[in-house]
Amino acid sequence: MYDPTPEHRFTFGLWTVGNVGRDPFGLPTRAALSPVEIVEMLGDLGAWGVNFHDNDLVPIDASWSEREAIVRAFRGALERTGLCVPMATTNLFGEPVFRDGAFTSADPDVRAYALQKTMRAMDLGADVGAKTYVFWGGREGAEVDAAKSPVDALKWMRECMNFLCRYNDDRGYGFRFALEAKPNEPRADIYLPTTGAMLAFIETLDTPEMVGVNPEVAHEHMAGLNFTHAIAQAWDAGKLFHIDLNDQQPGRFDQDLRFGSANPKAAFYVVKFLEDVGYDGPRHFDAHCYRSEDAAGVRDFAAGCMRTYLILADKARRFRADAEIQALLAGLGGDSALTPVMAAYSTESRDTILGAKIDRHALAQKQLPYERLDQLVIDLLLGVR
């Protein structure tokens, strides 16, 4: 019941299961896996797809012939396992040239290099069939606000995104772009720090219909925000193009924990939302195995992400089928003659609402059994219901 299959559309990045356990204070703790080894492992575990940054697959200084050999071997692994590549992205944060930003660098030559690198990475993504292209601006921010105007930075970011949207059209790639927000780390402050900020920025682009968002659990939870609310806003706007699933303790560094391992209740509501609305995109796990683990532990980590999602999806089905829970929910709203009146403004609806006799005292006495409802959810998650 909790064994993943490709139909579940679970994906991982080469950088996730390929993480070697390095952190800011310590060297790698396990051997690197090649892209082919990663694809074969994910295929064996029942995943659907694999994603990558450009240099996760092809080293930045590789020659054209080296690139072609790497891509050929990668394609062969995809064909043997049946995995696909739903999403690709560009590493615009690792190289020293991006130490003060890529698309928001004050140096126009750095911005031009970021565009060049991204266009070539889009070519690579298109070569292996990617349909979504993600942009995470890990270096698009500031430590010293005196150094750069945030208005200028947003203007440069807009120019670059508009340029790449035109390139997408020019090449006929048909990518859907997805912008990924994060409040901080590695910069002290990252521009457009939340999903809501990204949604507002998208509407200032020349072709906003091409661009959506890629919200990440850890990035919203780092700031103490509610991730389910973030993806609900994105879904309501028709902009939930991709999603990154992991886990995170609020207020900590970016932990990228195994999905559902830190806050299973919050993870439950994320899964319940995605299943309730019928989200049919990739369920991408952007997480890392504990630094203490070896290669066998990496398999356990990847399997655990998928298993937890499927367990919580089953809990969501039980939630929908639970008579007591559904009865409580039904009692929270109720019918009112004013419901259709509020749906659209007119002089008639205005006068109807202005003239309505609404007993605020009676409304204030209406029972809202949230304690009982929340405990039923806890009972469900803890397996006693």
Tag the structure with descriptive keywords:
47% helix; 10 strands; globular; 15 helices; alpha/beta; TIM Barrel; 385 residues; two-stranded antiparallel sheet; eight-stranded parallel β-sheet
Describe the structure.
It is a single chain. The chain has 385 residues and is α/β, with parallel strands linked by helices. The protein has two domains: 316 residues, Divalent-metal-dependent TIM barrel enzymes (TIM Barrel, Alpha-Beta Barrel), CATH 3.20.20; 59 residues, no CATH class. The chain contains 15 helices and ten strands. Strands 8-6-4-3-2-1-10-9 form an eight-stranded parallel sheet. α5 links the parallel β3 and β4. α5 packs parallel to α6 and α9 runs parallel beside α10. The longest helix has 27 residues. The protein starts with 9 loop residues before the first strand and ends with a helix. The model has no long low-confidence stretch (mean pLDDT 97).
